[in-house]
């Protein structure tokens, strides 16, 4: 029996074959169907079978026989909901988008048939899309898109181009991610991982490969030949199919000598605990999850630190000790903890490598095209121009995709060893175990207020629980908050035999804010003061002060419930403040080149869902007074001029000005050839067309340029610290079900001060997504490990819980756009400042609702239930 | 990591209950209904691989067959979505319909079956991690008991600490449903000619909380063919409530279904009650103490002292593990909530 796929007859799989998803992707080339969780949880692989949505990763391909199958490609970009997703920007990275779009198309059609062109409410949409997860958190846009499509607003093409230039490619499944690329003849590589928490590896040997000889092994161990956690990469093998490669990997024999291990951070601090790093050399080589270079610090057994930052530190400590001795009621000294949060982008870490004539060709799902190409050239000892890295689309990263990770190394080595292209793609278990995380923390905060209510002293001691890695910086970020009163902050790392962290969106920020902002609220209560008013007194930061003024007028805050709440469902409103350093990439470059009469914008940056592809086109178009549709933006290729990595809130503020500079330089170049091009202002359409026709091959390169008064630091490997910090204030409203211990975030107001906003809708989407991720951090997300072995138990998307559409608040984003006039382009990054205070605001809202202060994240039902009785 | 793809296993597609039962009777073969969890279980070694017996083509296993009085026989291959969207079921057996609507996601509900839901493997992270052996996979320990068991049982019945995951079982237990099982006779001489014996079990008999080696008691070759609910009585009320972290697409920590029969066609006091809970033990449990206390409770009024006392008494039923003490109050409040819901619910 044949099948029909997107209206055309297709042969049914004649062997027992793969899952329906694999059949569609690998055999029919319909890569719009994505595989993310592999267990029917996330919905990225949704297809329609006889018109009904189905998770194709669970569906045996032979179940398709005789059925009518529709994939995202079959919607042909003409379904109203596809237009609506693009117009309302119901997406970021786009990896989950095909699945959402297919399910939503069925819902919209059914809704309209039953209810006419009316808008469903949020709960109805959340019910319909409950089987879909978006890790970027583009839910606000999705709610808006689905409602608008139901109301019949997108039955014809939209008049305006969507805010995100690549939205049409993403809503139709045309966007090809690294995971979608495997030229014919590509082999699959699989990583062999440690099954023991600590051991010296003596020998690694492989079984016979396809040709009878032992399969060549790519070595992934460090020079010390030690494994320090379960899941650590040891070696990799490749075979023509994934099943064969997995069989080979299973047959790889690892002879090892076990070493004592410690997997619990409390136990690791004991004097007789096994020590992970014994020598100075080993300690220096410990992996770090800090985003900036990690400063040196002393070690004591498994504890590294403190890294200390003080401002009249001895005074602070003396005041706090004295207050403690006196039992001063205005001393707030409490301990707060956070759990391990895993990045878990829906597109896993994946690389495809091949060699030809000594040149290395790479596709990598990375946040740093330029940096990875640099590092690859160095590692494999190649001239930089012989590394050809292409990253067209990236299915999310959140900080986890910045390094020459084991998937890259394995793909490159296996390709060289086997003489064929090799793809290495982590499965969800690997992604949730060993692809980075935001480490858990244990933080002690002490705040002392004077009788006048002023802040007299602050101390913060924070212990990061980053497994084998170091780099905790939660405490140091606290020193940047609330003025200049005496303070001492200290960061420690406790290493254990568990997987390493990676920088995650606002590294150190959310755990810092969780601890500090609960403590500040507690102090407000002790002082009998409104939490907003206390922050207005303590906080001198002008950007946040502007946001506080706004909050004071906000109905969400002004009209919040007061007094003791009673009954089963209790509402509460809380707020939290946050800041983030202004970072920039001084080496950012954008090239403009005239090709075939068209203006092409090029740079080796990449779009992980932030929208930089659109921003580059929009900036150039705006500068020349033309339409972005007339330009072609090509990013994601290492052969282009240097592009900034997508991390550290620096991409737009670095690349945007470089694009503007390039446009100015192009104007000058065009003026030399075509006098009709004006010296400033919009270039008339005909003049631009003629000028471009006359300027074939002309190329200019724009640079970032310096801010007024310069930067605070010199360029450190494409990183500099600029003047001023971004600010944020989040106001969260929750409803606590005191009977069942559940928190429902209802509404959120996100005030962001990062200067001029380059693209309002894209920036808003990022800030809305930050709220979603912050809610996940506050309520659900938590890596669970086996206490004895350190094996990660939450290695699938059922046990690692990220928020769905029904779990997030209705969110309003407000941009305060002043305060960065000294910055070229007038605006700085907001990717990180927008996430820092979300969980903290939620915690304060729960306190407001219930009168119980929570100290430990996530706020699980088991933690809330005991308090309510 | 052991990796077995279901699709690399041979698959047969029997076309009768007898044939399916026979193919399964030898042991080792695996029935496949909706298949929503089978692939994942095979992948992680929670189920030992074997030839697949796909039940899709077996006739007569799908759909609700109603008697005039509202009794219903639900075929084992009926999807969870069909239960959740059947208006007649929602009207006559609302506790079951609500449990069906609350579980998993629309896509999973569209594929997963009643039989598969009742006989599914538990959700223990250790069972589903190939790094561990446990009683369920032929080992001699329960790593969750000494390890991470936050979502584990609070009524400790035996060596294994994983709660039974079936929401439908909780509802069916409250509805005094029976389970129809076809018992296969293997492939001996003349087996072809024989149709399998059938047996009817109560839902409680389908499970044995003291047996740590599996999540139900059916033998290989036993084929669950249907569940049957008796006719509702006039004045019956029912409700379902689950405690969970996320609002949707989530496994419950505790869930409860209550069904009451009230005097005077539904407006009078409770004359009989059934309360079943899940998420707390290796099997779904009835709570006889609470049921007895509910007799005499009046719809629309606050629960009386007897009910409050019975809820408090639930603590004595519990034997929490080190990390599941929270399930004692959560069980009490979930049951309280579901009772309030039922007594406020419009009667039939």
- Per the principal axes of the C-alpha atoms, what is the gross shape of chain B? globular
Distance between the termini of chain B: 53 Å
Q: Could you tell me the number of beta strands of chain A?
A: 31
Residue windows where pLDDT falls under 50 for at least 5 positions of chain A: none
Helical amount of chain A: 25-40%
Outline the low-pLDDT stretches of chain B: none
**Based on the structure given, which CATH architecture of the largest domain in chain A is correct?**
2-Layer Sandwich
Radius of gyration of chain B, CA atoms, in whole angstroms: 20 Å
Count of helical regions of chain A = 26
Q: Give the count of helical stretches of chain B.
A: 12
Strand arrangement in the largest pleated sheet of chain B: 4-5-8-6-7
Query: Helicity of chain B, in percent?
Result: 25-40%
Number of domains of chain A: 5
% residues in beta strands of chain A: 15-25%
Regarding CATH, which class of the largest domain in chain A?
Alpha Beta
Most extensive chain-chain interface: A-B, 67 and 53 residues
The rough form of chain A would be described as: globular
The average pLDDT of chain B is 92
Kindly provide the radius of gyration of chain A, computed on alpha-carbon positions and rounded to a whole number of angstroms: 27 Å
Largest sheet of chain A: 7 strands, mixed
Reported by name, the CATH topology of the largest domain in chain A is Aldehyde Oxidoreductase, domain 4
Give an overview of the whole structure:
The complex is a heterodimer of chains A (869) and B (348). Helices cover 30% and strands 23% of the residues of chain A. By secondary structure, chain A is an alpha+beta fold. Chain A folds into 5 domains: 3-74, Beta-grasp domain (Ubiquitin-like (UB roll), Roll); 77-175, [2Fe-2S]-binding domain (DNA polymerase, domain 1, Orthogonal Bundle); 268-342 and 437-523, Aldehyde Oxidoreductase, domain 4 (2-Layer Sandwich); 541-578 and 724-868, Aldehyde Oxidoreductase, domain 4; 589-703, Aldehyde oxidase/xanthine dehydrogenase, molybdopterin binding domain (Aldehyde Oxidoreductase, domain 4, 2-Layer Sandwich), CATH 3.30.365.10. Chain A has a 7-stranded mixed β-sheet, with helices on both faces. Chain A is globular and about 80 Å long. Chain B is of the alpha+beta class and 348 residues long. Chain B has a domain at 6-47 and 110-229. Chain B contains 12 helices and 12 strands. Chain B has helices at 17-25, 38-44, 80-85, 87-92, 94-102, 106-111, 114-118, 143-146, 167-174, 288-294, 305-317, 327-344; strands at residues 11-12, 30-32, 52-54, 64-66, 72-75, 178-183, 197-202, 222-229, 236-243, 254-262, 270-278, 285-286. In chain B, the strands form 3 sheets. In chain B, strands 4-5-8-6-7 form a 5-stranded antiparallel β-sheet. In chain B, strands 9-10-11-12 form a 4-stranded antiparallel β-sheet. Chain B is globular. Chain B starts with 10 loop residues before the first strand and ends with a helix. The model of chain B has no long low-confidence stretch (mean pLDDT 92). The chains are: A alpha+beta (869), B alpha+beta (348). Chains A and B meet through strand 4, helix 5, helix 8 and helix 26 of A and helix 6 and helix 12 of B. Chain A: Residues 7-21, 643-661 have a biased composition (Low complexity). Chain A: Residues 1-75 form the 2Fe-2S ferredoxin-type domain. Chain A: Its EC number is 1.17.1.4. Chain A: GO terms for molecular function: xanthine dehydrogenase activity. Chain A: Belongs to the xanthine dehydrogenase family. Chain B: InterPro entries: CO_DH_flav_C, CO_DH_flav_C_dom_sf, Diverse_Substr_Oxidored, FAD-bd_PCMH, FAD-bd_PCMH-like_sf, FAD-bd_PCMH_sub2, Mopterin_DH_FAD-bd.
